[in-house]
Design brief:
Chain lengths: 316, 280
């Protein structure tokens, strides 16, 4: 964190940095999400603010995945004195997650007795969660409900920050909604939060981001009053399979080379007794066309028939 | 992933009466042919405006299967025929299909001068590291230690990096791809076909029945699966002073520049000569 940048945070107010609040043991905030969601921005705001409040701050992050949709995290620790830049398992006071499964992934880092879990219900399904390559196939994404997770944490909030931000007209402000939620866990003055947020967002989006910040803050306040808020994230609807693959195999051209059989990612082809390629497991075929492309003898043609249309034609 | 593929049926571009083709089971040349026909389809090149010129060999044989204007010439000379054709008929897309023996051994001189002129042509060299058609003699790209009928104790000559050769000789476009990655190969061919100068594309293909069998490289699918590993030292190694990284197999567009294309200069000179002739 650069000192000069911080000085400009409240430049207009010409005020000195407020006296530090005593915090002997460092306060640990773990911010996690998926590349591109704004994890680093959240941690920068927090770190800048904590430094402005007179704390020593250490921040460490992984951001190499930013463009790849990979797992991103940032550790922010602040207090009178901070030695290690990373938070150990079971040591986070607050875990703030911009994506549902990422939040669950990091739960073991939360302090078991007092840790606060604030998690966006936004789901970003990683490619490797696909059970197979068929369009619309079920996902191996976490199926835990917010209610189930609530049993594991001292205090937990499943907040649909992405939709809230969308409703404000800027989906990208979801991370600031979560910052607003985070602000309720810390005793920093609201004015300091808002001036720091304004410093870190693009000039043109200051208004919408401040709105997002307040929304996140009031959401938590409201959720706190009756009982810890829970909202079950909706299960992913299975996309409709748009077509059924059908293989046309020309026995007269097939030379039994075995390439299609061995290269099919789903292993659904075989050579029959005459050593001609045939589709042994049609239900597994995804229509990927690899067999068609790699057959040196042009003996395979994959037809992707729009669902329903095939039936229609048969009826005619 | 499914874009434009559904519209492409390779049979629309084949001479069906010639099928099945004469290549051995698993021969990579068939896959290379599909990629070419797919590229031509994607670019919507009119068959009547397409001229395929090939030499002799299993690779050279491919022209016979393509439903377009095809010209099956003599061993090593397709580039010479193609040069004449491209100069006389700039309205045609001229595509040369050649083998490693055809293009680098007997036809090596034609290749370097075609590169030097940078006439608008697309030259595909299907490199299977062997003279496939004549039963498996050593070729200029056969890797060291490999067995061929003419190197029964293992080849002890260094091999050419054909892409390094072509770029050093002045080709405007140089690329390489393996047959395993058909869509990538197609895209590379499209880029080559669209290049305004001489485009040289090396396709690493498998001669399963002769080279593979002789060197115990496994079944056809096994050969395809090892395409990016140990099979192609000729394309990785510093056999000539290669500008391309020797540690991993470089594929894709390796070099592209906008050197002046030769056809335009030739036609200007021809027009000048015609004008002079008319004065006399
Ligand atoms: C002038 C002449 N010399 C020699 C031959 C014999 N010949 C036919 S094909 C061939 C080599 C083919 O090798 P390559 O170009 O690598 O093609 P492949 O069969 O491997 O695809 C040779 C030497 C010939 N047909 N004409
Ligand atoms: S299209 Fe071919 S390669 Fe792809 S899954 Fe179906 S049979 Fe296998
Ligand atoms: S790849 Fe083609 S020729 Fe080889 S076994 Fe399959 S269908 Fe037959
Ligand atoms: S000899 Fe080799 S290159 Fe020729 S058709 Fe057979 S496998 Fe292909
Ligand atoms: Mg050859």
């Amino acid at each position: 964190m650069s000192g000069s940048k911080l000085a400009s945070v409240e430049a207009g107010e010409a005020s000195a940095a407020p006296a530090p609040i005593a915090r002997k043991t460092p306060f640990n905030v773990l911010i996690v999400g998926v590349g591109g969601q704004g994890v680093i921005m959240v941690s920068k705001v927090l770190a800048a603010l904590a430094q402005w409040r007179g704390f020593e701050v250490k921040q460490s992050e992984v951001h190499g995945m930013a463009k790849r949709g990979g797992s991103v995290f940032s550790h922010v620790r602040f207090g009178e004195r901070v030695w290690s830049p990373t938070i150990a398992k079971g040591e986070a006071d607050v875990l703030i997650a911009l994506e549902w499964a990422e939040g669950l992934r990091w739960l073991p880092y939360l302090k078991p007795a007092t840790g606060i879990f604030i998690c966006d219900t936004k789901r970003i399904v990683p490619p490797f969660a696909c059970l197979n390559r068929k369009p619309g196939a079920p996902m191996r994404y976490s199926r835990e409900t917010a209610e189930q997770v609530a049993n594991y944490v001292a205090e937990g909030y499943a907040i649909d920050a992405t939709t809230m931000a969308e409703e404000l007209g800027n989906e990208r402000a979801a991370n600031v909604v979560l910052l607003g939620a985070l602000s309720t866990a810390l005793d920093f003055p609201i004015a300091d939060w808002e001036s720091t947020v304004s410093e870190f967002v693009p000039k043109k989006t200051i208004a919408v981001n401040l709105e997002a910040f307040r929304l996140g803050r009031t959401w938590i306040a409201e959720a706190r009053s009756p009982a810890p808020a829970t909202g079950t994230p909706p299960l992913l609807p299975l996309a409709e399979v748009p077509f059924t693959p059908r293989l046309e195999i020309n026995a007269a051209w097939c030379k039994s080379c075995d390439i299609c059989v061995k290269m099919c990612p789903e292993r659904c082809l075989r050579l029959n007794d005459d050593r001609i390629a045939e589709l042994a497991n049609p239900e597994k075929c995804t229509g990927c066309r690899l067999c068609e492309w790699l057959c040196p003898d042009f003996a395979i043609r994959v037809h992707l028939e729009a669902q329903g249309k095939a039936a229609e034609e048969a009826a005619r | 992933m499914f874009t434009d593929a559904p519209n492409f049926d390779v049979r629309d571009y084949l001479r069906l009466e010639m099928m099945p083709h004469f290549l051995c089971p698993g021969c990579g040349h068939g896959i290379a042919l599909r990629a070419l026909l797919w590229a031509l389809h994607d670019l919507a090149i009119d068959k009547d405006k397409l001229a395929i010129v090939s030499g002799i060999g299993c690779a050279g044989r491919l022209s016979a299967y393509i439903d377009a204007n095809t010209f099956h010439t003599t061993h090593g000379r397709p580039l010479a025929f193609a040069t004449g054709l491209a100069l006389a008929r700039p309205d045609l897309h001229v595509v040369v299909i050649s083998g490693d023996g055809d293009c680098l051994a007997i036809g090596g001189n034609h290749l370097i001068h075609a590169c030097r002129r940078n006439l608008k042509l697309t030259c595909l060299m299907l490199n299977n590291e062997i003279y496939g058609m004549t039963g498996g003699q050593v070729s200029p790209t056969t890797a060291e230690t490999r067995l061929t009928t003419t190197t029964p104790l293992g080849n002890n000559e260094p091999s050419f990096d054909a892409c390094a050769l072509a770029s050093a000789a002045g080709a405007g476009f140089v690329g390489r791809e393996v047959t395993r990655h058909v869509p990538k190969l197609k895209e590379l061919m499209k880029a080559g076909l669209e290049h305004p100068g001489f485009a040289f594309i090396e396709v690493l293909t498998d001669c399963t029945e002769v080279y593979g069998r002789k060197n115990e490289l496994g079944s056809s699918p096994e050969m395809i699966m090892r395409q990016k590993s140990d099979m192609r030292p000729s394309a990785y190694r510093n056999t000539v002073d290669t500008p391309f990284h020797p540690t991993s197999l470089p594929t894709g567009i390796l070099m592209q520049n906008d050197r002046p294309e030769y056809g335009a200069a030739y036609r200007r000179a021809a027009a000048l000569a015609a004008a002079k002739g008319a004065k006399k």
